[in-house]
């Protein structure tokens, strides 16, 4: 085949595919509406199949020709008498269509495709139809002759009625057809028998314009001129063909070839043509231009004026055609006459005529209109040149019509690779722009006008990138449109009735997203048809309409595209899923019990869990929703499911608009930068070295992050990727310690060392990283010293994969960027950790992390971790989970180190000694327009002179003091210290024996120093500040209180308050322990912390009745009180909620509980 | 055919010039954790992500860096960036289909550049059995000169892409 032929064949395939796309929905409409189907649709069907047949004949594709021919014959019957459109007919046509599709998808192999079954099926139907009808003429009955010049000629002359003699006479043919038939200049074309291969050429009188109504109409509306062009052809048949092909293509490029004389719509046509051929050409070009373009002598062109009558008629008729064609006409020029013909108009367009005013003129205008309709589609396709207004109107009209093929805007086919290149270059442009912007800053002073120029370039660049991205967008209807057929087939197979409604087909998505959407959606649709929608009888029995409703809708939300598939079927029973999952051993019964409805629904995404009661042909093999979710998540989307038993289910896919540009966090790990897509990024947690030991723990062998009472499995990105680290020569032996922190510290050093030594380090890396590394080098000693916390920081990216969260540890978070995604070179395809590459702002290539892959590589098993968090926690874990206390370390001017729990402190103020005043023998501090009583805790406790370390003298010129204002209401007093040393989060192991003093809880060892922990309330008491408020009328002697708090320190504190008034105290570390104690002992009061691991205060409150002690008064304690929390506590059955350290309030509440008579 | 030549240690190597897109000085590239050791990393050249193969390592040599010139400075290496399959096919369909199975932009890191030589096909001989420093699989053919033996690389097998698959 020559190159031109190749090209032509390509065009044929594209065209055929377009036809197939409209044929399928039209067939479905035909099936649904049967004989009530609009003629438009039937005609369009016929026309589509016919065009395929015609072009296939031209290329000698006999298999396609054969099949399309027989389909056309059957459609001919339907067109003649819509009553024959039985389900059997549409079924056979759909089967044929599928075959046709296969053939056209692989044109070169189409000859080898066996379509005999489909042909036989259609033939059988044809025979049946003819058995009941008058004997049909040859063309119909003939076993699919390839050549049918008569038909071809007739069609080319745009005459549907000439196809073959009307077989169904029961129904009068539409008037229009009759009229056109009457005008047909050569009814004789019907006559020649089909088998004639080499016949005399079909003569067409090109001057008789009435045979080309659509062309003339189009010409009138586009202001085209008509020419008859006489073309001289070479003698050799092959040359002739290629010459004419080129000439025709050339003409098509500047106008439209309406018809030729002789008619050459197929291969054989040219055989019979002599040395000249006449072409009727409609074009907007003037004669002299035409001449230069076509390079034909002037004599070759004969202008052909359009008769007035025809042009008027055409103008009047336009709005009568298919709406999308009609609308432009209506807008393009004022409607000269009102237009009737409602039966054919399927949608009311904004320009739809008022039927009543049209009444009078109906007979004259109506007749030809029907004849025109067959061509409306072809015409509308070419009407793209209409004014923008008209195009918009056409679009609106098409939209209002619903399932009609969309109006065609003027488009140009562009290959995807060209678009990709454009995107690439737009990306390059962005990089160049960034570099220029940076460079411009330096020269801005010398060239003041460069700023605006760069800015302009900047905005243009952004717009270019945006538009180029838009060019890759496709409407989701590309995918949606195949579902009516699938639903139909499934419904039939399953004996159900299902109505599918499509909405939002015009929502655009990136081509790459669209491509990957088809499989998951098909899967979901199949599921819906198979097990969501009940059988018709069952539906009727429960009062639902017989037909199930399924809606597939696309819409924009929050910058994402949502695709929602809703049905009114049986819904999903969470319990049944749970049972199934238990049965399969995917969850335990305990887990199932603890699951919410939503969690249960999400179980259907587990692999291997099929909800179909029995395996059917359609679904139920256990490959299902997990694949859907995997696929959607690969696209950077998420899947949500909502369901009500008996009411229906809705599955929502949230998809990014594009995959080509995504927002991502740029992070560094092991001295290399990576991009982490933001789509699954939940939050970023910064873990300072000082907190690390508190927040990061080891369960089994796996590190976990404790985050808001949740344990998050941790993955160190650098470890997973196996990034090589070179250890500095003085580093310790390279054995791997279990602590992330240790490894981290070492890695940091390594990175820092590497950064310092590597002079070849590209200057392009962000200074942030380089600087940080160098700082680290300088601080290395200090970093190792735990007395300087906070300087070493790791970041935990909390990521969500398929509903499970895990943390990915990175060294630094550098930036958030919109990155252009470039495919991963095939050499790395087996690396699961990377999904793609990108080029960062400075031009370096960076890898995009596929965190599902990282998770897989790190071998995180969520079920294990979850089990660990929820249940089976041993004592060790309890210990690990215990809340650390944030302690403020202060030093008195006698050198005593004291620790005060952070939550007991309202604030710490730095005060100048000059603010201290002595009033009435007592020290006060004037601060912030208030007067505070100053308390020296060491003096109050009688610990003066016990100074364990002399205060460092000399260098400290700063004489300011520290005043700690305790967090106790109504008290205006401050504890005075010389300086604040530090704040620490530590687990205090209080030693109550080594050092004793009134007002002292105890002491502890910290960094080789003794820290004293004063009882602030008692200290204030001792200083006679609080002495007045509480008379000791509270006597709880003989009463037992259970104090539940996970913080030993606070537990001791609360206990001391209550013990003071006579309570016998028992303590529990958390709710679970408390419940156990409550079961075996009797208490008179329960005081519990709200925030506890394992079982918090609220859970404890709900558990309480089960212990048989539901009537115990409960008091909640919390370190951070709010009215919200108080309300919640009251609702949960607590008597009150008090701040943990507020002795006064706690005792007040306790005293209110005691019946006055008892004391 | 026209052959672009270069050296790798003592080896005198050549690649058919039709397959070569450009040659530039080696620069810092992004390593790909978890990949083969002979993959040096990825490089951005005018918006294209190029995968760089370290030819020394690919040939199984242990010293990835060429020996310095004595002054302590490492000698600069060069990237020989190959055309992609589609680029070659645009120029010569036959060669592209037969000898250029790689679809992604890719480059080889070599030590020193040599001349471009025009070599008659008749002079290209099958690799001798005793070729040292390079596996016969990687050799398309050899050309004998008075002093040197030019080894013409079979780039497809160097890159580990099976010509059949593409």
Task: Give a nutshell description of this structure.
The complex is a heterodimer of chains A (1159) and B (166). With 1159 residues, chain A is α+β, with helices and mostly antiparallel strands.
Q: What percentage of the residues of chain A does DSSP assign to strands (E)?
A: 15-25%
The total domain count of chain A is: 7
Shape of chain A: elongated
- Give the CA-based shape of chain B: globular
Helix content of chain B: 10-25%
Q: Rg of chain B from C-alpha positions?
A: 15 Å
Main sheet: strand order of chain B: 8-1-2-10-9
Mean of residue pLDDT values of chain B = 84
Q: How many domains comprise the coordinates of chain B?
A: 1
Largest beta-sheet characterization of chain A: 6 strands, mixed
Could you say which structural class the secondary elements and strand pairing of chain B correspond to? mainly beta
CATH H-tier superfamily of chain B: CheA-289, Domain 4
Query: Helix/strand-derived class of chain A?
Result: alpha+beta
CATH topology of chain B: OB fold (Dihydrolipoamide Acetyltransferase, E2P)
Keywords:
heterodimer, A: alpha+beta, Four Helix Bundle (Hemerythrin (Met), subunit A), 7 domains, six-stranded mixed β-sheet, 43 helices, elongated, B: 166 residues, mainly beta, OB fold (Dihydrolipoamide Acetyltransferase, E2P), five-stranded mixed β-sheet, globular
Structural commentary:
- The complex is a heterodimer of chains A (1159) and B (166).
- Chain A is of the alpha+beta class and 1159 residues long.
- Chain A has 7 domains: 1-198, Up-down Bundle (Four Helix Bundle (Hemerythrin (Met), subunit A)); 309-401, no CATH class; 416-471; 475-656, 2-Layer Sandwich (Heat Shock Protein 90); 661-871, no CATH class; 879-1022, no CATH class; 1040-1158, Rossmann fold.
- Helices cover 42% and strands 21% of the residues of chain A.
- In chain A, strands 20-12-13-23-22-21 form a 6-stranded mixed β-sheet. In chain A, strands 14-18-19-17-16-15 form a 6-stranded mixed β-sheet, with helices on both faces. Chain A has a 6-stranded mixed β-sheet with strand order 26-30-31-29-28-27.
- In chain A, helix 1 (3-33) runs antiparallel to helix 2 (39-58) and helix 1 packs antiparallel against helix 4 (87-105).
- The termini of chain A are far apart.
- Chain B has 166 residues and is mostly beta strands.
- Chain B has one domain: CheA-289, Domain 4 (OB fold (Dihydrolipoamide Acetyltransferase, E2P)).
- Chain B is 13% helix and 37% strand.
- Chain B contains 4 helices and 10 strands, in the order E-E-E-E-E-H-E-H-H-E-E-E-E-H.
- In chain B, strand 1 (2-8) and strand 2 (11-16) form a beta hairpin.
- In chain B, helix 2 (85-91) packs antiparallel against helix 3 (93-99).
- Chain B is globular, with a radius of gyration of 15 Å.
- The relative contact order of chain B is 0.24.
- At the A-B interface, helix 19, strand 22 and strand 23 of A face strand 4 and strand 5 of B.
């Amino acid at each position: 085949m020559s190159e031109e032929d190749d090209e032509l064949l390509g065009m044929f395939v594209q065209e055929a595919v377009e036809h197939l796309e409209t044929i399928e929905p039209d067939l479905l409409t035909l099936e649904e509406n049967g004989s009530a189907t609009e003629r438009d649709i039937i005609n369009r069907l016929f026309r589509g199949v016919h065009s395929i047949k015609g072009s296939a004949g031209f290329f000698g594709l006999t298999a396609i020709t054969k099949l399309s021919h027989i389909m056309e014959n059957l459609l001919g019957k339907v067109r003649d008498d819509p009553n024959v459109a039985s389900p059997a007919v549409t079924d056979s046509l759909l089967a044929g269509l599928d075959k046709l599709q296969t053939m056209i998808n692989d044109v070169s192999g189409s000859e080898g495709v066996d379509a005999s079954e489909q042909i036989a099926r259609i033939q059988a139907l044809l025979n049946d139809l003819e058995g009941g009808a008058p004997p049909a003429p040859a063309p119909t009955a003939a076993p699919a002759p390839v050549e049918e010049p008569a038909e071809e000629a007739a069609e080319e002359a745009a005459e549907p009625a000439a196809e073959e003699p009307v077989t169904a006479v029961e129904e009068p043919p539409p008037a229009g057809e009759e009229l056109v038939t009457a005008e047909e200049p050569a009814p004789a074309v019907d006559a020649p028998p089909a088998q004639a291969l080499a016949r005399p050429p079909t003569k067409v009188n090109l001057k008789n314009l009435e045979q080309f109504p659509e062309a003339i109409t189009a010409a009138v509306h586009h202001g085209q001129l008509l020419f008859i062009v006489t073309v001289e052809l070479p003698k050799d048949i092959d040359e002739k063909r290629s010459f004419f092909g080129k000439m025709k293509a050339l003409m098509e490029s500047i106008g439209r070839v309406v018809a030729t004389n002789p008619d050459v719509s197929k291969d054989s046509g040219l055989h019979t043509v002599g040395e000249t051929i006449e072409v009727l050409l409609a074009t907007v070009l003037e004669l002299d231009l035409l001449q230069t373009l076509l390079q034909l002598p002037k004599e070759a062109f004969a202008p052909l004026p359009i008769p007035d009558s025809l042009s008027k008629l055409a103008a009047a008729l336009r709005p009568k055609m298919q709406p999308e064609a009609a609308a432009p006409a209506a807008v393009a020029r004022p409607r000269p006459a009102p237009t009737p013909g409602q039966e054919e108009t399927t949608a009311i367009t904004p320009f739809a005529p008022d039927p009543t005013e049209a009444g009078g003129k109906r007979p004259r205008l109506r007749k030809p209109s029907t004849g025109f309709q067959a061509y409306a589609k072809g015409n509308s396709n070419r009407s793209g040149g209409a004014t923008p207004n008209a195009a918009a109107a056409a679009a609106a009209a098409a939209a209002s019509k619903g399932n009609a093929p969309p109006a065609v805007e003027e488009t140009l086919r562009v290959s995807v690779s060209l678009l990709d290149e454009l995107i690439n270059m737009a990306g390059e442009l962005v990089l160049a722009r960034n570099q220029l912007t940076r460079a411009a800053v330096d020269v801005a002073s010398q060239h003041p006008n460069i700023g605006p120029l760069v800015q302009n370039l900047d905005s243009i660049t952004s717009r270019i990138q945006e538009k180029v991205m838009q060019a890759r967008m496709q409407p989701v209807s590309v995918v949606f449109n195949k579902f009516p057929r699938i639903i139909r087939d499934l419904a039939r197979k399953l004996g159900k009735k299902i109505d599918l409604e499509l909405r939002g087909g015009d929502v655009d998505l990136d081509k790459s997203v669209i491509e990957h959407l088809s499989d998951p959606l098909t899967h979901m649709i199949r599921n819906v048809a198979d097990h969501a929608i009940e059988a018709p009888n069952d539906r009727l029995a429960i009062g639902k309409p017989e037909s199930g409703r399924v809606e597939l809708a696309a819409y924009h939300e929050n910058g994402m595209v949502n695709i929602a598939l809703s049905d009114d079927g049986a819904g999903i029973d969470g319990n049944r899923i749970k049972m199934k999952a238990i049965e399969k051993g995917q969850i335990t019964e305990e887990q199932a019990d603890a699951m919410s409805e939503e969690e249960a629904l999400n179980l259907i995404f587990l692999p291997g869990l099929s909800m179909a009661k029995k395996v059917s042909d359609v679904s139920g093999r256990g490959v299902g929703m997990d694949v859907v979710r995997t696929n959607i998540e690969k696209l950077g989307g998420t899947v949500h499911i909502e369901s009500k038993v008996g009411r229906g289910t809705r599955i929502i896919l949230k998809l990014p608009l594009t995959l080509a540009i995504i927002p991502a966090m740029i992070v560094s790990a092991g001295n290399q930068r990576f991009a982490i897509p933001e789509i699954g990024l939940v939050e970023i947690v910064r873990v300072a070295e000082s907190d690390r030991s508190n927040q990061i723990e080891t369960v089994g062998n796996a590190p976990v992050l404790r985050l808001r009472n949740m344990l998050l499995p941790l993955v160190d990105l650098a470890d997973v990727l196996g990034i090589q680290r070179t250890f500095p020569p003085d580093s310790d032996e390279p054995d791997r310690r279990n602590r992330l922190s240790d490894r981290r510290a070492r890695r940091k050093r390594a990175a820092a060392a590497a950064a310092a030594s590597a002079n070849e380090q590209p200057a392009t890396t962000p200074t942030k990283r380089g600087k940080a590394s160098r700082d680290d080098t300088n601080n290395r000693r200090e970093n190792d010293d735990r007395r300087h916390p906070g300087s070493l920081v790791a970041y935990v990216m909390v990521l969500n994969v398929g509903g499970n969260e895990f943390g990915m540890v990175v060294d630094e978070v550098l930036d958030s960027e919109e990155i252009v995604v470039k495919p991963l070179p095939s050499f790395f395809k087996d690396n699961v950790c990377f999904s793609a590459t990108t080029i960062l702002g400075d031009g370096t290539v960076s890898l995009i992390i596929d965190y599902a892959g990282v998770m897989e590589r790190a071998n995180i098993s969520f079920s294990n971790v979850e089990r660990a968090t929820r249940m089976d926690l041993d004592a060790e874990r309890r210990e690990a989970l215990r809340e650390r206390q944030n302690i403020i370390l202060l030093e008195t001017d006698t050198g005593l180190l004291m620790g005060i729990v952070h939550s007991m402190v309202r604030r710490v103020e730095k005060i100048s000694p000059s603010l201290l005043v002595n009033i009435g023998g007592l020290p006060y501090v004037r601060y912030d327009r208030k007067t505070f009583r100053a308390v020296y805790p060491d003096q109050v406790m009688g610990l003066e002179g016990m100074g364990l370390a002399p205060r460092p003298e000399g260098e400290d010129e700063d004489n300011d003091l520290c005043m700690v204002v305790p967090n106790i209401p109504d008290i205006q007093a401050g504890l005075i210290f010389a300086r604040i040393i530090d704040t620490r989060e530590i687990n205090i192991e209080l030693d109550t024996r080594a050092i004793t003093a009134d007002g002292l809880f105890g002491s502890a060892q910290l960094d080789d120093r003794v820290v004293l922990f004063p009882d602030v309330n008692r200290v204030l008491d001792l200083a006679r500040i609080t002495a007045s408020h509480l008379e000791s009328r509270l006597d709880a002697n003989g009463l037992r209180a259970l104090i539940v708090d996970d913080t030993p320190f606070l537990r001791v504190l609360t206990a001391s308050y209550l013990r003071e008034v006579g309570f016998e105290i028992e303590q529990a570390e958390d709710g679970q322990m408390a419940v156990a104690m409550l079961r075996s002992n009797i208490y008179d009061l329960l005081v519990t912390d709200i925030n506890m691991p394992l079982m918090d205060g609220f859970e404890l409150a709900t558990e309480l009745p089960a212990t048989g002690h539901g009537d115990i008064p409960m008091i909640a304690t919390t370190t951070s009180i709010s009215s919200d929390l108080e309300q919640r506590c009251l609702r949960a059955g607590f008597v009150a909620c008090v701040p943990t350290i507020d002795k006064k309030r706690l005792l007040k509440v306790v005293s209110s509980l005691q019946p006055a008579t008892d004391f | 055919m026209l052959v672009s030549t270069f050296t790798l240690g003592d080896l005198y190597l050549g690649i058919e010039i039709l397959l070569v897109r450009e040659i530039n000085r080696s620069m810092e590239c992004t390593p790909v954790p978890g990949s083969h050791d002979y993959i040096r990393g990825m490089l951005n050249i005018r918006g294209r992500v190029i995968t760089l193969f370290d030819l020394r390592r690919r040939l199984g040599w242990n010293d990835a860096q060429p020996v310095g010139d004595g002054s302590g400075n490492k000698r600069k290496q060069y990237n020989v960036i190959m055309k992609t399959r589609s680029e070659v096919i645009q120029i010569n369909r036959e060669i592209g289909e037969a000898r250029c199975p790689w679809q992604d932009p890719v480059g080889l890191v070599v030590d020193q550049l040599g001349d471009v030589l025009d070599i008659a096909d008749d002079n290209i001989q099958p690799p001798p059995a005793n070729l040292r420093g390079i596996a016969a699989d990687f050799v398309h053919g050899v050309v004998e000169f008075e002093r040197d033996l030019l080894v013409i690389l079979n780039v497809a097998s160097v890159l580990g892409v099976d010509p059949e698959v593409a």
